[in-house]
Write a structure and sequence with these properties.
The complex is a heterodimer.
Chain A: E1 2-6, H1 12-16, E2 24-28, H2 37-46, E3 49-52, H3 66-79, E4 84-87, E5 90-92, E6 97-102, H4 108-125, E7 129-132, H5 146-157, E8 160-164, H6 165-174, H7 179-184, E9 191-196, E10 198-202, E11 205-212, H8 216-228, E12 233-236, H9 245-259
Helix pairs in contact in A: 4-5, 8-9
Chain B: H1 5-14, H2 16-24, H3 26-33, H4 40-44, H5 48-69, H6 71-77, H7 80-91, H8 100-114, H9 121-131, E1 136-145, E2 149-159, E3 165-171
Antiparallel strand pairs in B: 1-2, 2-3
Classes of the chains: A alpha/beta, B alpha+beta.
Chain lengths: 262, 174
C-alpha cells in the first residue's frame, strides 16, 4: 500500500523535493487541461501517478462531453497513471455546468448511465477506472440502497472504488447513518484507493473544505477500511489552508503510521 | 419539452427563485419546469434546506476554482471577491460545454465592470488567450513591484498542435 498526496501548485516545491513518506501522487486532471504536460512527464519519472477527474460528470444522462474527455485523455497519456478516477456524481446538466459535484439518485436507470460512462472513460484512456463516493448535503434515495448501488455499479462497469473516508464520515454524520455498517456492506475487493483529509464544521453541518488536519475519528475509520479491504493507496487530499512543511509531514506520517498497522 | 430529474435538480441548484417556489410547493415547481412524470418521486424527496445548503456549497467551490486560476486577481480583490462572485453567480453560469476556466474568464469580465482595476492584466491576458482560438498573442504588461513602482515586460502566448499552450513572460530590467 502506497501513501501519497494530491499534487497542488502550492505544494509543488515541497513535493518535487521528494519528501520522506510520500510514495505516490494524485494529480487533478483539470489542473492540467490547458498546460503543464511537461511537468506531468517529469513528475511521472519521480512518482507513481494517479489521475483524478472532477468534471466529466459521469451522472449526466446522454453522451460524455467530447472536449473534456479529450482533454482528460491527453493528461492521462502524459501522466501514464496506474489508474484514473472520477466521481459518482453530476457536475453538468443538459443546460449548464454547475461547476462542482452533486449527488445522483441510487436508481437502476442511473446505474446504467454511470456504468456506461465509466466503461467509455476506461476504453478512451486505456486505464482502469475507480469511482469515488462524494459528500452531499442532499441525500437521495432510489430503488437501491447506496451500498448496493456502488457494488452493482462496480460490477457492471468493472471499476474499482475510490473510497473517500472523509466523505463517508461526513455523510454519516449529516445524514445520521452508521459509517461502519455502510463500509461493511461494500464488497471489499472493490476498494482500491482511499482519499482522506480533515473535515470542517459549519454550524451543525459537517463539510469537506479540504483544509483541516486529519482528525482521529477519520484515522479510526480509515484503519477499519484498511482492515476490511485490500487498499493499494491512500492519498491525502488537501486543497486549501496549506500548512507549513512540518505539519504536512505530520499528516503524511499519520498515514504511514496507519499503513504500518499502528 | 419535459426534463429529466438531473436537469431539474441542476436547475434547482442554480436558480434561487425556483428554490423559493419549491419550498412553497414542490408540485408547483415540478409543473413549472415540466419535470417528466416518472421522476416526480425523486423530486418530491428533496429537502429545501438541504438543497439551499448544497447550492451554497456549489458557489463556494466555483469560487475556489476562480482563486486557483487567477490567484493575483483574487488577492487584489481581497474581501470584496466573495461578494462580487455571489453577484456574478446569481445570473451567470458557465454555458453548457464550457469549462471552469471559462467561468473564471466570464467572472473577470464581470469584475472588470464592477471593480475596475482589480483584474491583474497578465492573468486576464491568459484567460482571454485560452478563450480565443488565436495561435499567438503578444501583450505589453506592467506589474506593480515593491517598493511601490512598476516593472515592464512582454507576455507571449503560443498555441501548438492539439491546443497545447505555452506562455512566456519577459521583464525589462530598469
Amino acid at each position: 500500500m502506497k501513501i501519497g498526496i494530491g499534487y497542488r501548485r502550492d505544494l509543488s516545491g515541497w513535493i518535487e523535493g521528494m519528501p520522506s513518506g510520500v510514495e505516490c501522487l494524485e494529480i487533478t486532471a483539470e489542473h492540467f487541461f490547458h498546460n503543464g504536460e511537461a511537468r506531468l512527464v517529469a513528475l511521472a519519472q519521480k512518482y507513481p501517478l494517479f489521475v483524478h477527474g472532477l468534471g466529466l460528470s459521469l451522472g449526466t444522462p446522454g453522451r460524455l462531453e467530447k472536449r473534456p474527455l479529450d482533454q482528460f485523455a491527453r493528461v492521462v497519456q502524459a501522466a501514464d497513471p496506474a489508474w484514473i478516477s472520477e466521481h459518482v456524481a453530476f457536475t453538468r446538466t443538459a443546460e449548464a455546468d454547475l461547476g462542482h459535484l452533486n449527488p445522483v439518485p441510487p436508481t437502476r436507470e442511473m446505474l446504467q448511465v454511470i456504468a456506461g460512462h465509466a466503461r467509455e472513460l476506461s476504453e478512451r484512456c486505456g486505464k482502469p477506472v475507480l469511482l469515488e463516493n462524494i459528500t452531499s448535503h442532499v441525500r437521495l434515495t432510489g430503488d437501491l440502497s447506496e451500498t448496493d448501488f456502488f457494488n452493482e455499479l462496480c460490477d457492471r462497469s468493472d471499476c474499482g472504488l475510490l473510497l473517500d473516508v472523509t466523505n463517508l464520515f461526513i455523510n454519516s454524520r449529516n445524514h445520521c447513518f452508521d459509517a461502519l455498517k455502510w463500509l461493511h456492506a461494500i464488497e471489499p475487493h472493490r476498494i482500491v484507493q482511499l482519499h482522506i483529509v480533515g473535515y470542517s464544521r459549519s454550524g451543525d453541518r459537517y463539510t469537506d473544505s479540504h483544509g483541516e488536519p486529519i482528525q482521529e475519528e477519520l484515522i479510526e475509520l480509515a484503519r477499519e477500511v484498511v482492515r476490511h479491504a485490500p487498499v493499494q493507496a491512500i492519498v491525502l487530499e488537501r486543497d486549501e489552508a496549506f500548512p507549513d512543511v512540518a505539519d504536512l509531514e505530520t499528516e503524511v506520517a499519520k498515514l504511514n503510521y496507519l499503513r504500518d498497522g499502528n | 419539452m419535459e426534463i429529466d430529474f438531473i436537469t431539474a435538480f441542476g436547475r434547482l441548484l442554480r436558480d434561487g427563485s425556483l428554490r423559493d417556489v419549491y419550498a412553497a410547493s414542490p408540485q408547483a415547481a415540478a409543473g413549472q419546469i415540466r419535470l417528466r412524470r416518472p421522476d416526480l418521486a425523486l423530486w418530491l424527496q428533496l429537502v429545501p434546506e438541504d438543497v439551499e445548503f448544497q447550492a451554497t456549497v456549489l458557489l463556494r467551490k466555483r469560487l475556489e476554482l476562480v482563486k486557483y486560476f487567477v490567484p493575483e486577481t483574487s488577492r487584489r480583490a481581497g474581501e470584496r471577491l466573495s461578494a462580487a462572485f455571489r453577484g456574478y453567480a446569481r445570473t451567470h453560469w458557465p454555458p453548457d460545454g464550457c469549462d471552469q476556466f471559462f467561468d473564471t474568464y466570464l467572472f473577470c469580465q464581470h469584475l472588470d465592470q464592477h471593480l475596475p482595476g482589480t483584474v491583474v492584466r497578465t492573468e486576464w491576458n491568459r484567460l482571454a488567450f485560452v478563450a480565443s482560438e488565436r495561435r499567438v498573442a503578444v501583450h505589453w504588461v506592467r506589474l506593480p513591484v515593491a517598493p511601490p513602482g512598476w516593472r515592464f515586460g512582454i507576455q507571449f502566448f503560443v498555441r501548438g498542435p492539439g491546443r497545447q499552450r505555452q506562455e512566456f513572460l519577459f521583464y525589462f530590467r530598469l
